[in-house]
Amino acid sequence: MVRWRAETNSCRRAPMMPQILLCPETAVGAGTGHLRRAIRLCKQLSPDARIYLAPDVRDGVVHTVSHELGASWIERDPAALVAASAIVIDRPIIPREEVAALCQHAVVIGLDAGGSGRALCNYTIDIIPRLRDDGRANLRSTAFLELPRSVRSAPPAIYPRILVTFGGEDPKRLTPRMVEALLQTGEVNAQQVTVVRGPLAAWDAPGDVRVLDRPSNLMEMLCDYDLVCTSFGLTALEAAAARCAVVLLNPTRYHARLGKRVGFTDVGVVRVNRRALGLALSDPALGLKSAALVDRRASQSLARTIARIAQAPPARCPICRRPGGEPIFRDADRSFYRCSCGVLFRTAFTDPGIAYDEAYFFEEYRAQYGRTYLEDFAHIRVLGLARARRVMRAHKPPKQARSAKPRLLDIGCAYGPFLDAAQHSGFACSGLDVATAAVRHVRDVVGIPAVAGSISDPSVRDRWKPGDLDAVTMWYVIEHIDDLRPLLRWVQRTVAPGGVFAFATPNARGISGRLDRSAFLRMGPRDHVTVWTPTAARRVLRRFGFHVVRVVVTGHHPERFPGCGAVRPGTVAYRLLLGASRLLRLGDTFEVYARRREERE
User: Fold this and answer.
1) Phi then psi dihedrals of residue 417, to 5 deg
2) Which of 317, 382, 35, 49 is nearest to 199 (CA)?
């Protein structure tokens, strides 16, 4: 398990193999903000992380990281990209083909990522605000900023101590431009100005100003200054968090637009607007305005978040095992994908925390449906009688294999209402459920054999041998299974030719999924791994030796039609919409009844 720890110097003892590989921006002209963040994360994620620097990265960048961490914490071999279980890409532009290759074997986390590869990242975290929301961020929050611990007691109203810092490289030489402009205002002298020269800067120190050469922890020094002159990025946000006044001179119009969106005072792009700078220096409220831009109370740990996300497996279809491709929906806990088999599936980055124990069937079930499961037993049994009749009709064994009572296993049997209905309909029944109290009720009260356990456990599946069963049913269970491929193969082996595999599940092509797929997925239970459609069910079951003989679309909700939220049951409008929903098969759930073919695939 990846462990998070507070920043210490213990990172100089390197791990044998990194679980998390940090890939910061190192291109010429990109500055060192991304590199600094990667160094901090590497320290906090020690001993489970390293920084990857490609073989063609400049020696100055390698020396910077080596100076902070030690050479043993740097990976230069591209083979490390294959060995890591999680890869954090902290670059503003990522090629799509690069992410596509990495996603084959690792969880790829995009940190303030852009470019065509952003869409393919398994998880994206936007800390620095973007100009527009493209719907491709799992998390968006400035609360993940590494904020300085050293903070001014109050924002300044005058600015006698000025810090000028434009990153570790400053390729557009913004530092000398800003110093010259400050001195020419007539309100600032050289003794008031300190400039930061980063490890990759090529400019000469202007005039008699003080120079901080390659400071190791600039963030904690910001509070010593009244005004920080920088460009939009991490340093600007850190300075605001330290309660300094901040003015921006930006290298591009894009940076300027980002800064204005956040609310920073801007004095130009590359060239300093002297009038704007003069107004900023004479504004006693500039410090208050800057400090208000960052909320220190909402601080969250980026390292902890990355450590949690890194526990997720690479995104692969639980049926086909194909890589996920581009997520179709994201939120803080999940990313959803559409496989070429037609099934939607998700990768979860947090434990859903849902236990199907006795409490679920009573307190939680009552909260959702207004009564406990046992109070709903009779209603579910009525539904079960209809389902049992459909299973019996679909069952067509070879003449020589017909027996008096077809053998049925209900997976996820709960307290047994369907088993009771199926036994009444002529099946020789047995049940399986993870809830021991439910299994005990089925055996002792309903009077039907049942086993406690998970169908995902191979030792549980081994209780049934090939051809042992004539029907396997899963009512609203299949969507909870993390790895469906071995389960479906087991069903194929265990159900005798002519037998039936039947299940019910939510319908991604119902009215809710069609109208707003994102809302449909967002509102779905957190522990649902897959979301099916009738078409996908036909396609998938065909591959596992079954032919779908009937699909029953259920869960019709006329009130979910556009503009029909106020329509009430019993009205003419409700009945018309209900008829349309049934005719067009727009229910939000469906049942599948598939017959086992005689030949094995």
Assistant:
1) -65, -40
2) 35
Q: CB neighbours of 246 closer than 8 A, spacing ≥ 6?
A: 227, 228, 229, 230, 236, 239, 240, 264, 265, 286, 290
Neighbours of 285 (CB within 10 A): 10
Q: Give the right CATH number for 162-293 from 3.40.50.2000, 3.40.630.30, 3.30.450.20, 3.30.559.30.
A: 3.40.50.2000
Query: How far, in Å, CA of 553 to CA of 75, rounded?
Result: 54
Residue 525 DSSP symbol: -
Please give the Cα distance from 594 to 588 (Å, whole number): 20
Please state which CATH class domain 9-144 belongs to: alpha beta
Calculated CA dihedral for residues 402, 405, 407, 413, nearest 10 degrees: 150
Taking residues 326-354, report their average pLDDT: 94
Our separate counts of H helices and E strands in the chain read 21, 24
Side by side, which strands form the sheet with 495-506?
A: 450-452, 428-433, 407-411, 469-475, 495-506, 589-596, 546-554
What integer pLDDT is reported at residue 403 of this predicted model?
A: 64
Element (H, E) at 407: strand 407-411
Residue-wise pLDDT tens digits, 185-240: 999 999 999 999 887 777 877 778 999 988 878 999 999 999 999 999 889 999 99
Give the residue carrying structure tokens 């500055």. 31
- Same CATH topology for 9-144 and 358-596? yes
Tokens 């009260």 belong to residue: 445
Domain boundaries along the sequence of the chain = 9-144, 162-293, 358-596
At 1 the pLDDT is 40
Confidence band for 9, pLDDT divided at 50, 70 and 90: very low
CATH fold for the domain made of 358-596? Rossmann fold (3.40.50)
C-alpha count within 13 angstroms, C-beta hemisphere, residue 143: 10
Query: Angle 377-394/417-424 helices, nearest 10 degrees?
Result: 50
**Contact indicator for 164, 178 with CB cutoff of 8 Å:** yes
What is the 3 state secondary structure string of 349-364?
Answer: CCCCCCCCCHHHHHHH
- pLDDT digits over 403-459, tens only? 679 999 999 999 999 999 999 999 999 999 999 999 999 999 999 999 999 999 999
Q: State residue 599's pLDDT score.
A: 61
- Which H helix or E strand runs over 182? helix 174-184
Quote the CA–CA distance of 392 and 404 in Å, as a whole number: 12
**Given a cut of 50, is residue 11 above it in pLDDT?**
no
